[in-house]
Write a structure and sequence with these properties.
With 284 residues, the chain is an alpha+beta fold. The protein is 20% helix and 26% strand. The strands form six sheets. A four-stranded antiparallel beta sheet has the order 8-7-10-16. Strands 5-6-9 form a three-stranded antiparallel beta sheet, with no helix packed on it.
């Protein structure tokens, strides 16, 4: 699966540049950069955002705000954030410090929806852009966070400018000439501002794979006792029947996932697989 990396026209120079966008997708390998560690304990997310393409959006600028929202198979959401206390189990490092994020799995199979959000921190030495509604310019405006007092606040650029202390959002004497405060967190997810967030779905089937592996081991140990040409005998071999059903469900789940089906279908298959793994007997 390939994705087009869009570009924008700089209103000041008219030159074409690559714009910043938050991403968990590796355009070179053409894969989503979310892996499962060898112990099936964590999702390992690699931040593939292009941090070297746009003023105010180089990697050191992302020093405060990063979140990862994880919608689990049961529909509940865990939110991990760089603005939490470092001692919190939901703390993650900002993008300026690390491109790798580890998210605990908790031993639950199913489809996980992962939303990564990176917002740069305001810097008085950067240039900021406000684009008009012309579709060629993608109608996207710079968003920053700034620490005002003890609070981290969001601001949207409304006027092109070279930054300076006078224009520091929420603080400088003329900041309202160039910025407007964002108070609705959902605003960051609306069309036109999606360059700051990316959502991917990853399929986890560690418990199912363990069940299939255990059945494989049992079948291997008993292979010298089974006449694989005897259809009647095979039809009543519980391990063999479980293996076939689980292997088929596993293949169906992967196919549905690759075809971008909804997470609910994948989770339904996981539920069926769990029931089969727990069965002691099974009628042919």
């Amino acid at each position: 699966m390939s994705r087009e990396i869009t570009s924008f026209i700089d209103p000041g120079t008219g030159s074409v540049n690559k714009k910043y966008f938050t991403s968990m997708f590796d355009p070179t390998a053409e894969i989503v950069s979310i892996d499962i560690d060898s112990r099936c304990a964590n999702l390992v997310i690699t931040d593939k955002s292009n941090f070297d393409k746009e003023y105010g959006h180089y990697q050191p600028a992302f020093s405060n705000y990063r979140t990862v929202e994880v919608v689990k198979p049961d529909g509940t959401t865990d939110t991990y954030s760089s603005i939490l206390e470092a001692s919190s189990s939901y703390y993650i490092q900002p993008a300026s410090s690390s491109l790798t994020i580890n998210i605990p799995l908790g031993g639950v199979d199913g489809a996980y929806e992962i939303r990564l959000t990176n917002i740069p921190t305001w810097n008085e030495n950067e240039q900021y852009q406000a684009y008009d509604s012309n579709p060629v310019l993608f109608a996207q405006e710079d968003i920053v966070v700034n620490v005002v007092g003890t609070d981290i606040k969001f601001y949207r650029c409304i006027e092109n400018h070279s930054s300076g202390s006078t224009f520091e959002p929420g603080v400088g004497g003329s900041w309202q000439d160039n910025w407007v405060e964002i108070t609705d967190g959902n605003y960051l997810l609306t069309d036109g501002y999606s360059k700051y967030t990316d959502t991917e779905v990853v399929l986890v089937h560690c418990s199912l794979d363990t069940c299939i592996q255990n059945l494989t081991n049992k079948l291997f140990c008993s292979s010298n006792k089974i006449d694989f040409c005897d259809k009647e005998l095979m039809c009543h071999n519980n391990e063999y029947l479980k293996f076939l059903k689980l292997y088929s469900l596993r293949a169906a789940m992967d196919t549905i996932y690759r075809n971008n089906a909804d997470s609910g279908t994948v989770n339904d298959i996981i539920a069926i697989s769990d029931r089969i793994c727990e069965c002691e007997t099974f009628d042919c």
